[in-house]
Amino acid sequence: MASKKELVEAQTFGRRRLLTAFVSGSPGGREIEPQKPMRAVVAGVALSVLLVLGSLGYGLLKPGLPTGWDNNKLVLTKGSGARFVSIKGTLYPVLNTTSARLVIPSESFEVVEVAESKISDVPRGKQIGITGAPDELPSPAHLVGSGWLACVGDDGASRIQITQAPAGEATTDSAVVTVADQTYVVNGSYRYLVPKKDVTAVLRALQLESAPVRAVTGPWLNVFTPGDDLAPLFLPTAGDPLVTSTLPSGTVVGSVVEQTGSGTEARRYVVTAAGELAPLTEIGYQLYQLGSGAQLGAPIQVSSADIRDVRTAPELAPPTWPQAPAAAFDGLDPMCAVLQVPPGSAPGAQPVAHFALAATTTTDALPTTGRAEVEVDAGKGALVRATGDQLTDQGTVAIIDQSGTVFAVPDPSTEVLAQLGYTAADISPVPQSWLAFLPAGPELTVAAASMAPAGTSGS
Question: Which residues cross the membrane (predicted)?
């Protein structure tokens, strides 16, 4: 049995061993580092941040409906492509984009794409829109207001081209054409009717007796401005004696006097009942010789001195007649009319049709169906106001889309034009005769776009 002394020594040894363990570290010299209490806090904060960022990322990848989508917006559904106009929280199926534009105020129009599942519970209204209205309108930068070309082939087939590329070149040639057993001469911007009984004589006087005669369509011929008929020219009082005159003896009313002089071209005049001299153009003289001049003999030769005191009267021939005979169209190329502003015209001048010859590409492209066809450059179109007799400022405004169809805009107010994507400055004047050559579509109005399509019950 241990003595008391041994017990005391054992207790002392135990205390020393325990103390040594506390102050000497772990065996092998490794120190056991105490745990840091903030490590768990930092890890928790980091995890929270990751959760928040993940939620935001999911929201961006799976967005909800944008603000204001439910009123005055064009809503397109992803996947199905269904199209709606949103009005005060209700979705109205709409036939085409143009109808949607007319329903929505210009300052609010916006296209919104949404997932179909997002709007499955949104109230639906009746279908609205204009049947046959275009889905795509030409942008202002793609409007073509001039340079149009209307060509006609040998068989009467014709084509309208609305293009910015030069497809035809104006010519000074004259062409002889027929429509419904009537003969016309086309020259410059005019078409001239030749009376049946005078066709042979008039064409000979115009040096067109050998020109090929081409049958054309009425719409093509009507794009040219009507000129005065090309017919024998008469002076009602021709042959009557002059009351008083300083002209040579034998001169009567209707006599042709011809002024000649050294180094100057001969000029011809008709003596009027007032004893004045009415100038005669070359064509005027030729057709006067078929009329009153045929009975009054050859022109009377005068000098500048002989007529220096004789007053000049207005020209006898109509002002629309050509000045002189032109070369005959050879008939080898399609005959065309090009819409252009006459060279040298004042700013704002109206474009007119001018007789032209087609480019090679146009020659090859003419239809063979005997009917009119329309070709518009890809993405192009026109915004026009019809002009013509009494229509310079009040003519109908219309949009021509890529199909060549004319869509009238009865109310071309600033707001309606803005709804369609235009301003008044985008409108180009075009003669009504050119628009009549094109097929017509439905009128584009706000009222029609807001109602059920024609022929439906609206349910």
Answer: 40-61
Rg, C-alpha atoms of the chain: 44
Q: DSSP per residue over 374-443, as a string?
A: EEE-TT-BEEEEEESTT-TTTSPEEEE-TT--EEEES---HHHHHHTT--GGG-EEEEHHHHHTS-B---
**pLDDT, tens digit, for every residue of 231-272?**
999 999 999 999 877 888 889 999 999 998 755 678 999 999
In this structure, which amino acid lies at residue 177?
V
- With 0-12 / 13-18 / 19 or more C-beta atoms within 10 angstroms meaning exposed / middle / buried, residue 132 is middle
Among all chains, which residue has been given the structure tokens 């024609």?
454
- CA end-to-end distance (rounded Å), the chain: 114
Beta-strand ranges (E) seen in 295-396 are 300-302, 335-340, 352-358, 372-376, 382-387
pTM for the model: 0.76
Query: Which residues are CB-neighbours of 79 under 8 A, at least 6 positions away?
Result: 115, 116
| Greatest Cα pair distance in the chain | 187
Residue 11 tokens, joined: 């207790």
**What local confidence, expressed as pLDDT, does residue 77 receive?**
92
List domains and CATH numbers for the chain.
65-133+449-458 (3.30.2390.20), 142-226+327-441 (no CATH), 240-302 (no CATH)
